[in-house]
Amino acid sequence: QVQLVESGGGLVQAGGSLRLSCAASGRTFSRYAMGWFRQVPGKEREFVADISTSGITSYADSVKGRFTISRDNAKNTAFLQMNSLKPEDTAVYYCAARVPLRSSYDYWGQGTQVTVSS
Q1: C-alpha distance from residue 19 to each of 3, 29, 38, 88 (Å)
Q2: By the 8 A CB rule, do 47 and 57 touch?
Q3: Exposed (0-12), middle (13-18) or buried (19+): which is 69, by Cβ within 10 Å?
């Protein structure tokens, strides 16, 4: 069982930056790949970024070059550095954990709101 808690959301002007954190419980954090997703009311949750247990990263086209996912296994924490934010990045951001080699995510956090003003 893994429990995930996001933090770092807030209100920022367009062009600004935010860094989201995802703190995981338990001693097996390093065994999970971590992902970030976002959701706008009335729309489906969409993939943002993923980092494997070995540090391989992947991104949605909409955030490539602006967002960076990372992890610190010693601190049981995953991060999402978001730069050059746009109003369309406004959403609730969720972190999630998945077992390697599986595409589905097994554990989810409660989400943190990110609002980008124009």
Answers
A1: 20, 20, 14, 17
A2: no
A3: buried
pLDDT digits (tens, 9 = 90+) for 40-99: 999 999 999 999 999 999 999 999 999 999 999 999 999 999 999 999 999 999 999 999
Helix (H) or strand (E) holding 44: none
Find, among 56, 64, 14, 9, the residue nearest to 33 by Cα. 56
**Token code pair at residue 30:** 């390093």
**41-49, long-range: CB within 8 Å, 24+ apart, which pairs?**
45/94, 48/80, 48/93, 49/80
Distance CA 54, CA 117 (A): 35
Q: Residue 92 and residue 40: Cα distance in Å, rounded?
A: 7
3 state DSSP class of 31:
helix
The whole-angstrom separation of Cα 113 and Cα 118 is: 16
